[in-house]
Amino acid sequence: xxxxxxxxxxxxxxxxxxxxxxxxxxxxxxxxxxxxxxxxxxxxxxxxxxxxxxxxxxxxxxxxxxxxxxxxxxxxxxxxxxxxxxxxxxxxxxxxxxxxxxxxxxxxxxxxxxxxxxxxxxxxxxxxxxxxxxxxxxxxxxxxxxxxxxxxxxxxxxxxxxxxxxxxxxxxxxxxxxxxxxxxxxxxxxxxxxxxxxxxxxxxxxxxxxxxxxxxxxxxxxxxxxxxxxxxxxxxxxxxxxxxxxxxxxxxxxxxxxxxxxxxxxxxxxxxxxxxxxxxxxxxxxxxxxxxxxxxxxxxxxxxxxxxxxxxxxxxxxxxxxxxxxxxxxxxxxxxxxxxxxxxxxxxxxxxxxxxxxxxxxxxxxxxxxxxxxxxxxxxxxxxxxxxxxxxxxxxxxxxxxxxxxxxxxxxxxxxxxxxxxxxxxxx
Length: 428
Known about the structure:
The protein is an alpha/beta fold. It has 17 helices and nine strands.
């Protein structure tokens, strides 16, 4: 049995002149559905109301084979309302309540059959303290009812040297009934520490087939088959990114801005002038994507601290609240830095895809393009740039990524990249 704990909500997207579109969402709920689709026995611990949106949440979960031990309650289902203006920019209104009115005894009963720890890092790095205090002790426990205790660490490339060292002994001599799964982009030393890599069995997990991604986007997101296939190609069959691409005009705009840099390289200083707008768009997307989560987290803490209370003893009782609020703000700031860096990485991935497509066109390899809607641009670049120049363009993008990891200001890193690309393309 796998247990997922967290929120379930409905995203309602409205645009003038169109009927609002409701999408069942919430990251924990999506994890539960994904595990169930892979054939696992999964239960979801989260609240939803006895309303239409709650029915949609329950139908989505149970329809995908997820167990729901809790019935709907009398409160409204949590909703994130997004209103899009004529430019695609969104304003938000949140009605969120993720509280569960259930006894600790009942929670313990439901968790008794769970032998899985799922680590999803939100900071720039996975803290060494979290490895020592949570991951290592959990790995040392015997499974309760299952045959194995499983530790899944997503984005294991975020293990810094100290965190990797803290985990090394456990990976080297794992407990007899524990399996540790670390997910990383590659086995390259820059993505995964060499010390850990040498003690692991490597398993390549391919992306889903294009037809499967298209099916998901058409059936669950209401996309046309044309848009779904374009999204599947542009995201290299990454389901989560493809969902966002067909769902959000802002994501589509950010992708276009990234790709158009390759065109603007040939037009004097226009590429450098476009960097500021692209950086702003990427940072805005990173903030907006998690705005509801951060606001709800702060509201929950303020409620727990009794913020807003009145009376003679309230001032003294709230004396320590400021420190707790500040600690949360610092934590959210660290997560925000990670989210912005991830967004810049997506920009670079989109841009690198253009130069990869140019290489395919130039070589006549006959492979599918990542950005088929920009085939004309890929052909222009292929005609104007040597094979060595195209390789140099890719290296410039890789260098930009490294500089961002070194905390170089995004605009500075991007401008340096563009200067190097201009030289590679022999732009005077």
